[in-house]
Amino acid sequence: MLMRQMITIASTWLAGILLLVGLFLSIWIILPAPIFSLLPLSIGAPEISPVLIFINAFALLLAWVLFWIGAIQTYRLFSFTLCLSCLALGLSASPLLQFSSAQQHAERSIVASLGQDYQLDLPLALTARMRSKPLAISDIWGGISSPQVRIDRDILFASPDGIPLSLNIYRPTQVGTYPAIVSIYGGAWQRGSPDSDDSFNRYIAAQGYVVWAISYRHAPAYHFPTQIDDVRSALAYIKQHAIEYETDLDRVALIGRSAGAQLAMLAAYQNPPFPIKAVVNYYGPVNLTAGYNDVPTPDPIESRVTLRKFLGGTPTEFPELYYQASPLNTVKANLPASLLIYGGKDHIIQSKYGLNLAQKLQSQGNKAIFIEIPWADHAFDAVFSGLSNQLALYYTERFLAWALFR
Question: Taking the model in full, what pTM does it have?
Answer without folding.
Answer: 0.96
